[in-house]
Each structure stands twice: as C-alpha cells, then as structure tokens.
Design goal:
Helix 14 packs parallel to helix 18. By secondary structure, this protein is α+β, with helices and mostly antiparallel strands. The protein contains 19 helices and 4 strands.
Length: 343
C-alpha cells in the first residue's frame, strides 16, 4: 500500500504545485536511521561537495517547491558533505564516484539504490521509484545477479540500476554475457531483441557472431530487412575501424568472413570496396560509387558516403576532383527528389 501511495505521489508531483518549503534534513545519519525505522520510510542521502554542479542540483532540482515537499513527505533526508571526514568515509564505503550522488537506504538501514551525478527533477523521480522497488533496485538486481540469474527479465533491470549508480562500465560485455545464457526463443523476445538491436555493436563479439550463424532463424522471427539492417550497421562500423588502421590480422580474417552475412547488395558492394581498398585502387573505388552506389536510394547512398573519405585517403588530385563532383551530384539528386515529394 505504501508503494502505491508513493507512486501516486510521484505521478501527482508532475501535475500539481504546492507551497514552497525547505528540505527537512535529519541532524545526522544515525538519527536518520532511527527516524526511518520509526516511520517506516526510506533514507535518502544527498552526497555533495562545494561545487557548481552540486549547487545547481540543490537549487534547480531539490529546492523546487513540489520536489522538496514530496521528498520531505516520503523520505528521511540526510545531507552528506563528501569533503568532511564522515563524508569521505561514506564515499569510500559505498563506492561513490560522482558528485553529487544520491544513496537510498530502506527503513532497516540497508543499501537499496544509488544515483550517481546530477539529473533533472523528472529523472530523479524515475530513479527514486526504481530505487524503492526491492526486485529492480540496485541491491535487488545485484542479489539476483549474484545468485546466478541471467534472465531476459533481469537484463534491463540490471542495466538501468547499474547505470543509475554510474557503474555500467561495459554495456557490450553485459549484453554478451546475458545472451550467452538465453535460449534462441528468448533471444528474439521483444525485450532481448530490442536491447541487442540497440546496444550490440562490435563484429568481434560472440553474441554477434552467433547471431549471423543463426541468421535464417532471426530472419524468420524478426524479418529479413531488420536483420540485414543490423548486420549492415555493425559491418559499416567495422569497415570504418579497418580503414582507420585499427585491425589486427585476426580481425581482418573475421571481418572478411562477416561480410558474407550481409544482404545481397551490401555483400557485393562492401566486398568490392574492401578488395579495392586493399589494392589502393582509388579510381576503381570512384567507379563503383559513380556506377553502382549512386543509384541506391538516398538512405543507403548516405551510409556508403560515410566510408568514402576513408576509402580515398591518400588519393591524388584527379580522384579528389571526381569525389567533389560526385558529392555535388548526390546533393543535386537529393534536392530533385525532395522537390518532387513537395509537389
């Protein structure tokens, strides 16, 4: 019932204003523990130092009349100066890395959630609501994770809570770890596929290599265009990396194998561009752009345009002149297509 009341408070806070009032901070963290136990409330510690960002958060977020009223009503508040001795120890004990930070404790004084860095009033309220839910807050997701759970349901909760805490250091590694536990059916669930589609971005990752090995299954479940677009996105990023000289010999072998998973048109064009780039055949590259890439729809042509400068790095004046003319031609064609749409 208390959670329902608190949720209603969060929602109504966005709709109604109340009279201005100051934040009611407890006299000490120890007193806050006593008060929280007696009143059955969460403790919210505002950890700060004398800095411009901390002042802005206090003035532009916490001192907003409706925010202050809401926090006073639902939490036992503590202000913690991280430059003082108690604050230094608190920062070390709870692994705080950003200033300001918010630390939420349940009514028994156990760590529930961490919020690192400044945020808007709306963001703070959303993160506090996540923090009061035992299953999805920082403490809850770590408990589930440490017990061995690697479910589709845990993955977004894990990402959001660790991101709130400023501890989501390697999202790609998290996606890879969780996906290694998922069944094929779980990988194409709405939640898992959305996270994969948004965050998976390295062709070296095992989760991506498994994805292209099972391409037909994903095509059947989520659609050929969606799958090909994802492969194109990752291959184009890899191509830019390769052309910037950041590939090892093992990367080159894996990349060339990955090109074979592209859709028919991309497979042909990227394969040709890759071979021409290795030969430094700048004239051949421009021929391909002028004869085959120019006729693609503007969206695809633009994506290939992102590779063009890297592919032609080191070319002579004659090729640069062709490149300039090609870009002008593309712009003129795009304007003509837009004019037709307007008419």
């Amino acid at each position: 019932m208390k959670k329902i009341v608190l949720l209603w408070g969060l929602l109504s806070l966005l709709l109604f204003d109340v009279n201005a009032q100051e934040l009611n901070f407890a006299t000490s963290f120890e007193q806050a523990r006593i008060d929280a136990k007696e009143k059955g409330r969460f403790i919210l510690v505002y950890a700060y130092s004398p800095c411009t960002l901390c002042d802005d958060v206090m003035e532009k977020v916490l001192w907003l009349p409706d925010v202050a009223a809401f926090l006073n009503e639902h939490f036992i508040l503590v202000d913690m100066d991280l430059d003082e001795r108690a604050g230094v120890l608190f920062k070390k004990e709870y692994g705080l890395k950003l200033c300001p930070s918010f630390v939420l404790f349940d009514s028994d004084g156990h760590l529930a959630h961490k919020i690192a860095g400044g945020c808007s009033a709306e963001e703070l309220l959303a993160k506090l609501f996540r923090g009061i839910e035992p299953k999805i807050n920082y403490a809850g997701v770590l408990k589930r994770y440490n017990s061995g759970e690697r479910s589709v349901e845990l993955l977004p909760d894990y990402i959001f809570s660790l991101d709130d805490a400023g501890e989501m250091n390697n999202l790609s590694a998290v996606i890879n770890e969780f996906f290694s536990y998922f069944t094929m059916e779980e990988k194409v669930s709405d939640m898992a596929w959305t996270l994969f589609n948004v965050y998976a971005g390295n062709f070296r990752d095992q989760v991506f290599q498994d994805f292209i090995k099972n391409k037909e299954y994903f095509v059947e479940k989520v659609g050929e265009d969606v799958v090909n677009d994802k492969i194109q996105q990752i291959v184009f990023l890899a191509m830019q990396e390769a052309l910037s000289g950041k590939f090892s010999s093992a990367d080159t072998v894996l990349f060339e194998q990955t090109i074979g998973s592209l859709g028919k048109v991309d497979r042909m064009l990227i394969g040709e561009l890759w071979n021409l780039s290795k030969q430094k055949d700048y004239a051949g590259i421009m021929d391909l752009y002028e004869q085959k890439i120019f006729v693609l729809n503007p969206k695809w042509r633009s994506k290939y345009g992102d590779l063009q400068q890297l592919l032609l790095k080191g070319c002579g004046k004659d090729i640069n002149d062709r490149l300039t003319n090609y870009i002008v031609k593309c712009l003129e064609d795009l304007r003509a297509k837009r004019s037709k749409l307007i008419k």
